[in-house]
Design goal:
The protein has about 210 residues and is of the alpha/beta class. It has a single domain (about 1-200), classed as Rossmann fold. About 35% of the residues lie in helices and about 15% in strands. The protein is built from six helices and six strands. It has helices spanning about 15, 30-45, 60-65, 95-110, 125-140, 150-160, and strands at about 1-10, 50-55, 75, 145-150, 180-185, 190-195. The protein has a six-stranded mixed β-sheet with strand order 3-2-4-1-5-6. It is globular, with a radius of gyration of 17 Å.
Amino acid sequence: MKSIYVVRHGQTDFNIRQVVQGRGVNSDLNATGYQQAKYLFEHYGHILFDVVYTSKLTRTHQTMADFLQKPIPHEVRDNLDEIDWGIFEGVEHHPALQERYYDIITSWKHGDLTNKIEGGESAQDLKDRLLPVVEELKQSSYKNILLCTHGRTLRVLVCLLLGKPIEEMDSFSHDNTGLYKFYYDGNQFHLELENDLSHLDSKEFNLSK
């Protein structure tokens, strides 16, 4: 049996400003994001992880930085990058963008998984690039796996691990440093923790940017 811990990266200023932050925006954590990462490590740093997987984007590397101070293999997978939001990458939310964005999300919920923003990826595209990650997790000889990724990617990955249609992706919450824990029994993945934020309980944050 193996355990897989899946975490969303810590907070960035773009999260606060509601700037569209997909695969093409390589932002850094802000002060709150670094604190979230610190508390995540304080809570889970005692676990003897065999490997840390991240996307190629800096915000996941920064979230995992304390774990990677240990002699743990670091596997970078661009399959784990956030979805590409095309022409909306790096754009602050405005009414026209908001309307188009929710049209896309609604169409995915109704099964039109190939719909996408101009120049970007669809939900089907994201699913297709995550399927090799799921297979790697199944086949891996590692027993304790820590994986850091992004909000939309996390939602689709959770659906794939649990064998749920990705039309249901928005039923899974994804706060910054929210943690999902699965165990794999050799046949299927089982969910133990969902968007767990216990590492942030009773913590105070420096909210300066």
